[in-house]
Amino acid sequence: MAKSFSVSVLNASLNHIVNNSLLLTVCSIQPADFYAGVYPAARANLMAYTVGNVVRPTPWNQFVYKCTTGGTSGASAPVWPTTAGATVGDGTVTWTAVASALLAETSMTTADFGAIVTTAGGQELPVLAISGILSVAAGNGTYVAFLDTVNYDMPMVDPLTATIVVPNPGTVNLNAFTITIDQPV
Q1: Both 61 and 108 in a single domain?
Q2: Which of 4, 36, 98, 176 fits 129 for a cystine, CB–CB 3.0-4.6 Å?
Q3: pLDDT per residue over 31-73, tens digit each?
Q4: If DSSP codes are grouped into helix, strand and coil, which group holds residue 84?
């Protein structure tokens, strides 16, 4: 017997993407998780951070740092490690280095998506064209990541059908595309 999901289950998955994706990032590789796909705020001196918070150093070094022990940052920035998984103390905070796949980012709202469409093979969610996406690093964009910046989650990563050359500084445009969740066969 073939596996099958109800349309409501497929729609719930797509609606989760629509309702929780607050940030879209263009990435050079498929990010493994939220932290590899985000360009966070810069680290601040004498700031309280909780586990899961993420910061970037100034100047940016293509890494982001995930708070793995909460506390208060020091009076000056630490020497940031540039090896994925390495940790550094900062006041009473411990940061863990995460290599960034991020090239460009833009905020999103539900208005950036079209209506979910039922097809014979599953469900489709149109993502409307987005222009003026701000670049943070130069490279070839091959994936887009949809990020939930409230829950530190990445509801969806989708490969681009064509590579986007991302200049830095500058902006890029993303053509409309469709996320498809196929009915299993």
Answers
A1: no
A2: 176
A3: 999 999 998 999 999 999 999 999 999 998 999 999 999 999 9
A4: coil
